[in-house]
Design goal:
L,D-transpeptidase catalytic domain-like; Nuclear Transport Factor 2, Chain: A; five-stranded antiparallel sheet; five-stranded mixed sheet
Length: about 450
Amino acid sequence: MARTPARQAAPAASHDGEAEALLIEVYRLIGASRSREALAKAEHLASRYPNFQLAQLVYGDLLAGRTRPLRRLGDIADGMPAAMVAQLDELRQESQLRLKALRERPPAHTIPSQFLTLAPRSRHAIAVDASRSRLYLFENTANGLQLVADYYISLGKSGIEKSVEGDLRTPLGVYYITGNLNKATLKDFYGAGALPINYPNPLDLSRGKTGGGIWLHGTPRDQFSRAPLTTDGCVVLANPALERILRTVEPRSTPVVIASHLQWVAPLAVQPESRAFEGVLDAWRAAKSSGDMDRLLAFYTPDFKSYGKSLAEWTPQLAAEAVRAEGREIRLKDLSLLRWNDKADTMVVTFGEVLDGARTGAVKRQYWLRQGGQWKIFFEGVIGDAPVPARRCAPHVLPGCLRARHGCRVGPGRPRAAGQARHLGGRHRGPARCGKGAAHGRELSAVRARQAL
């Protein structure tokens, strides 16, 4: 007889997950026909979180259920105004998504398939499953990624797959948090604060996508949570959940994967892909160390772009870096690999590039595209400085040595040139805008002050 695979349990309720845990307990009591206990628990929930509309609705239903049978959640009289009916439908959708996410947990000891390798300096990671309106928060431990919390979220009014400015959609892809905006600099609309991400990233730009200002942010004080599809493209969480994330994640090094559906796999399942790509990356490193430009340029796509520069315009910089090496080995440290599969196979690669014997180097991010069975670079940029740690590794010559398990860490640094890091997860060059599409004065100052890689 086949055994049912174990599922990851919902993390223990803390302040940031208390409201949802209480709501689910109310549902459990209702399902067990323990209506009096459910009513008492719902009353406590509604009193503790008076701005939690779904909780108020459930409490109202339980009160009404004392005098008449209930047909469904939000069982109101027929003939109510259309606006109220629409709002009730949204609350029902929120209820269904919360229940589904709690009933259908990710399999135990699994991770989203996009996370092939995560460097030690990336202490946390975030993944969003749009189909479940759920955000998953991971800690990057010595034993790999561990799921530490997950939260209900709201996404764009028009759904997902953002492509143009103002389309009210949430983007899909691999992104990085670029800053941490203090709520003191923001309007009440954004709640406890905001975490901008680097949409549009280089892959988005190569596909002609426009828009910007996609944030993870909270809700106004009078609103605990929003309906599943009610934002202008941002990812919106309840303030207690966002506060936990604000205290936890680090700008510049925290990846955010936003997918239509997350595929959960065992960590061992991604190792073959990781090792295979490490071999390709090591071949690129060896070509650059050798100073053979023909061999090096073979790793780049003809339509390569970096900050507006074509491959021909970027080649002199590559040549200058090869000359500076003067025959010394290039070592790649603190490697992160995040894979994105949609209509193309893409790898987002971040590493510290340090010459053998040097004390510092550059933190680089590359975007690779699989073309005809071969990996090619279509974007490359410097996003910071990589100091050599006290404990130094041997030169990374073999593919296996590229892995981050050596314990080498790359310290945070700043972009080499103003505006260089905009699409890598760093400083904005234009007006900072949230998903609403409105420019913000003090918010922009905060972005410029904090968003450096």
